[in-house]
Specification:
ATP-binding, kinase, ATP binding, Transferase(Phosphotransferase), domain 1, Ser-Thr/Tyr_kinase_cat_dom, alpha+beta, single chain, 3 helices, about 20% helix
């Protein structure tokens, strides 16, 4: 990895006004916040350290992948700043009474959106990415009910230089209960 922050926008911690804890991902807590200088509502995933997640997000751009804005690189306030999806997670939606109103058209639309996001990661992104923790908690919904894949904390780049490229097995870092049997 190049030096932290060299490939993405560095956001000052004091440029963020935190509103509420929205829950946690597999590698950090997520907060709804205001990016003051941009007057934009965002989600901030607070981390103990900046790792590959920011680097991975910085190269991705797709309507069904959470939009990355930058990272906070000031110790001890490390964080990843992304778009805020006001609809919450797909898991929350499916667990609510609202889900009873879903019809087959909505189910198919969402299945296609998730598939398009995953296809982008595996086949169209500038650098191929394997998510390694895709589940309903790691898919969020915009106000317009568009689904976006998020939480790239367990993700890895797939490149010709990667020793495991070409279908090799990766160490298990995601959710064990949601893993391929061959990877467990």
């Amino acid at each position: 990895m190049s030096s932290p922050g060299s490939s993405f926008v560095q956001i000052k911690h004091e440029d963020l006004l935190f509103y509420e804890n929205c829950g946690g991902g597999s590698f950090g807590s997520v907060y709804r916040a205001l990016w003051i200088s941009q007057d934009k509502e965002v989600a901030v995933k607070k981390l103990l350290k900046i790792d590959k997640e920011a680097e991975i997000l910085s190269v991705l751009s797709h309507k069904n992948i959470i939009q990355f804005y930058g990272a906070v690189l000031e110790s001890p306030n490390y964080g990843i700043v992304t778009e805020y999806a006001s609809g919450g997670s797909l898991y929350e939606y499916l667990s609510s009474e609202q889900s009873e109103e879903m019809d087959m058209e909505q189910i198919m639309t969402w299945a296609i959106q998730i598939a398009k996001g995953m296809h982008y990661l595996h086949a169209e992104a500038p650098v191929k990415v394997i998510h390694r923790d895709l589940k309903s908690r790691n898919v969020v919904m915009t106000a317009d009910k568009v689904l976006k894949i998020c939480d790239f904390g367990a993700s890895k780049f797939l490149s010709p230089h990667h020793p495991h490229d070409g279908g090799g097995h990766f160490p298990l870092d995601g959710s064990r209960s949601h893993s391929e049997p061959a990877c467990v």
